[in-house]
Amino acid sequence: MLDKILAKVENTIIVGALLSSVLALMVNIVLRYIFKSGLIWAEEYARFAIVWLTFIGASVVIREGEHLSVGIVMELLKNRKAKVFVEKTGILLALLFSVFLIVFGGQLTVETYKLGQVSPSLQLPMWTVYSAVPMGGLLTSYRFIQLLRRKT
């Protein structure tokens, strides 16, 4: 149940971020070339949307089983136990990196919140942009834990 809800939220964020950033950039291009004046905030918005798309998208990639792996190493290993060990070790290292993103991304987000920094064009609090890092770490951690459970 939780997994289905989370998958819908992830997919909605990804589709929304991609479509809205492409739309904002397209409108900005048309305005610049036809009216010689564009939207001041469009590029900044697209950049922020793509940051969120990237960090949430990492979780979706893991969920769909399309995450990076070194296939040649697995092909060279003949022993099934060795393959399982290498695969689990890779997942554990990726999980460790995800936890790193949660901890240090969270610290960065909190510090940015305390400073009250806002973006130049949108006047958006920058902590909302930086919060994509710990959120992505949290989601990828969840997905890597699911992956580990399936491998055992």
Give the helix/strand layout.
Blueprint: H1 2-35, H2 42-63, H3 71-76, H4 80-115, H5 126-130, H6 132-151
Helix pairs in contact: 1-2, 2-6, 4-6
Task: Describe the overall structure.
The protein has helices at residues 2-35, 42-63, 71-76, 80-115, 126-130, 132-151. Helices cover 81% and strands 0% of the residues. The longest helix is centred in the middle third of the chain and has 36 residues, at 80-115. The chain contains 6 helices and no strands. The chain is elongated. It is mainly alpha-helical. Helix 1 packs antiparallel against helix 2 (42-63), helix 2 (42-63) packs parallel to helix 6 (132-151) and helix 4 runs antiparallel to helix 6. It has one domain.
Keywords, please?
mainly alpha; 152 residues; elongated; single chain
Brief characterization of the structure:
By secondary structure, the chain is an all-alpha fold. It has 6 helices and no strands.
